[in-house]
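Batch manifest, entry 17 of 40.
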Amino acid sequence: MSKLPKAHKFIDLSDYGRPVARVIANALQNTSFTPVHVTIWFIISGLIGIYCILQGYYWLAAFFLIFKSILDAADGELARVKQKPSYTGRYLDSVADIILNALIFVAIWSVSGTNMWVGVLAFLGLQLQGTLYNYYYVILRNKFNGDTTSRVFEYETPVALKGEKQKHVDILFRLYKLFYGTFDRTIYALDKQAQNSHKAMPKFLMTSISTFGLGFQLLIISVMLVLGLKAFILPFFLAYTLMIFVFIGIRKVFY
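Output type: structure tokens
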């Protein structure tokens, strides 16, 4: 099951790991491994990548960060091939992502000597970028019969799906709201009418906005690390946050 029907699929630059993720998911389809197990794998991969950054092993850091991105796609793929979507997996994935993102930026700040406030603002910008991408993507999926495990607005705790416990959903949803609530409200305030647009977001615009996706962000970090540009990583993400206003402006004017 795809996240979007064929007519509305776009080139997602953050989703380069999807082919390998599908191979992993298909290999695990008839095993006892669950999507949550794969999420735990990507947490471990991300932590190893962070350790490698701190130790100056930048090629290894790049490998584990990109592998983390692949596994991040594989947990969702496994849920789809097993036909077992879950809110537990959805929120655990998101909570793990933001914690790992914060630790990655702390590690980069530690080895690059970048001003602390540049690092803090860059992290906030990184999260706002990802929130805008997810906001538009979830709207597209909900409008055109795509995957609906993610919701446009996360106001109330969802009812647990078959095979998961409500208490797990409750806990993870509270953590999700704690970590993402401010980012969600900020992006919604900047573009409240996106969900009411009668036009589908064009594929070229969604492809451009997909540079805000976490997979592409990790790829940029990895490339800059191996090229010896660690001092420019945090300033880059701070500056690239300005593209939020460009993309929202295009959406408002034309769509």
